[in-house]
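User: structure tokens for this one?
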Amino acid sequence: MSAAWSMPVEFAPPRLAVVIDKHTYTRELVMASGHVGICVPGAAFADKAYAVGSSSGRDLGAGVFVCAGRTVRAKPLA
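Assistant:
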């Protein structure tokens, strides 16, 4: 996801504020589904995170990689 801007809002409960440009594929998917997933990668994934964030999901197969992890909390958008 190419977030234009993000910041922590609360620590208890944990909350983030994220701005996603309305012209991005990510925004289209979020608005259509009503769901969003936030992944905070560790330093070991910095290069991969940069590569994915620098390309569009519209370009399928353009350096796509998959990582497994655990969901801390999943909740529909209000």
